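Duplicate of earlier report; LytTR family DNA-binding domain-containing protein input re-posted below.
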Amino acid sequence: MKAILIDDESHNLTNLQVLLNTYCPQVEVCALAHSAEQGKIAVNTYSPDLIFLDIQMPEKDGFDFLRSLNFYDFEVIFVTAFDYYAIQAMRFAAVDYLLKPINIKELVEAVNRGFKQHQLKSQSKQVEYLMDWFKVQSQKEEQRIALSTVEETRFAKVSEIIRCESSNNYTTFFLTDSSKLLVSKPIYEYDELLCGYGFIRCHQSHLINKSFIKSWLKEWGDFLLLTNGTQIPISRGKKQLVKEALKM
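Output:
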């Protein structure tokens, strides 16, 4: 994969280039750009498959850079310091990101995901969706979340998600249209992401949209009965949290 690196700090560019050369031999670094303007020139010159993009840069930041382009026929891995708002947006859009300082294992995993996307040539609209995410925050349009599976990236309304169920580092989403989507991310990421949208972590393996809770069953232990008839266990450690969320 041809890649360009965009960051206003030279030492960050050099460090990332060394890490890629050492641990990610499938990546060929074609250009280093110190600004959004240089990055745009590099995109037009090299037509990269992958872009490592810093968010916080002077004059124009990473999102300004993306807005300046007319196409997104490449994968993007964002590189950022701790910025909760930006990270929340990236999680909703299901794009990859790396926190500074860069962890080698996370770098390799992000590159491998980008490589698979590149091989499948499944150039999704995840970056476009990310840009739209910021617009949605100031509008009344209902929030959507990007759920990436092997076959597709589904943009689902939060209100369409009945529940999430964990299986090791995978999460299955159960939607109101009876579809199930298996996403290769752990449930704790979605717990943090969806807690502000009425979701309750009632068990280590279960995250529930409280809009679909019908009742609390107590006869054979503690379970939440959902409107579709599914019974979800409530762990002992989560009982008080669930009671508070349901105002019991």
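The chain has a mean pLDDT of 87.

Merging into the original ticket.
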